[in-house]
């Protein structure tokens, strides 16, 4: 169903493009002439809210109305979600849907479907994402999430990251947040290194290695990495490692 406002715009467009009268355009588009000529007498109380909402949409084109609503609330707008949904539809905003893929359970007992997180600090997952700076040099990003809360705990950005540096990042998180019961990952060389295995055993953390070639078994980590790339990495060209660290940390805190 098209709103009266949209029909009013369609009638105006038909008049300009086809050079027909208002009466003719209204008849063809089934718009009452009284509605076409109506103009609101009170000021638009949503004007500032809509302006800010559109600014956020331009800055976060992959965000839906719920996340835009959360950002507006954080910015001090006292507005409920239904009102944002109404304005979202009025402005014709939408996020293109991604095609859902069929879920596979996989053969490994360490996958996220067979071994689910049941509470905070039960299962964490970590993985690597690659990018580059404007000069073509490689960036390596280590992402770590709590699967139960879906919270991104850390994103380490460096030119390269060894197993020893992975241990240092984990050691800091364990001291600040407490150690998880399990840590899920793929079979990358940094994760299966003997130093990592020994240190996790000493820390009382059980490693969960997914089956080779089965990224869907680490679905929460892959989902975050996909969103991270879509919302930030594919839209930003970093001039330096330092800039990448700052921008990525800002994204993590907002996420």
UniProtKB/TrEMBL annotation:
Record-annotated Integrase catalytic domain positions: 115-255
GO BP: DNA integration
PROSITE patterns on file: INTEGRASE
One MF term in the entry's GO annotations: nucleic acid binding
PANTHER family assigned: BLR2054 PROTEIN (PTHR47515:SF1), LOW CALCIUM RESPONSE LOCUS PROTEIN T (PTHR47515)
Protein name, as recorded: Integrase catalytic domain-containing protein
Protein's organism: marine sediment metagenome
């Amino acid at each position: 169903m098209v709103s009266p406002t949209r029909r009013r715009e369609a009638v105006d467009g038909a008049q300009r493009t086809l050079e027909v009268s208002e009466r003719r355009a209204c008849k063809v588009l089934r718009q009452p002439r009284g509605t076409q000529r109506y103009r609101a007498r009170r000021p638009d109380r949503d004007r500032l809210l809509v302006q800010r909402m559109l600014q956020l949409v331009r800055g976060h084109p992959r965000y839906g109305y719920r996340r835009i609503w959360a950002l507006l609330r954080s910015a001090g707008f006292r507005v409920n979600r239904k009102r944002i949904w109404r304005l979202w539809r009025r402005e014709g905003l939408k996020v293109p849907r991604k095609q859902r893929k069929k879920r596979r359970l996989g053969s490994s007992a360490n996958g996220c479907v067979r071994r689910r997180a049941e509470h905070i600090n039960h299962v964490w997952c970590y993985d690597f994402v690659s990018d580059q700076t404007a000069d073509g040099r490689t960036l390596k990003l280590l992402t770590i999430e709590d699967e139960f809360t879906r919270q991104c705990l850390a994103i380490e950005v460096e030119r390269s990251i060894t197993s020893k540096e992975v241990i240092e990042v984990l050691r800091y998180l364990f001291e600040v947040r407490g150690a998880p019961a399990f840590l899920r990952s793929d079979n990358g060389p940094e994760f299966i290194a003997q130093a990592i295995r020994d240190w996790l055993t000493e820390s009382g953390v059980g490693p969960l290695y997914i089956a080779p070639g089965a990224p869907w078994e680490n679905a929460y980590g892959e989902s975050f990495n996909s969103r991270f790339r879509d919302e930030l990495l594919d839209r930003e060209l970093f001039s330096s490692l330092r800039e990448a660290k700052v921008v990525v940390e800002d994204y993590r805190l907002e996420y």
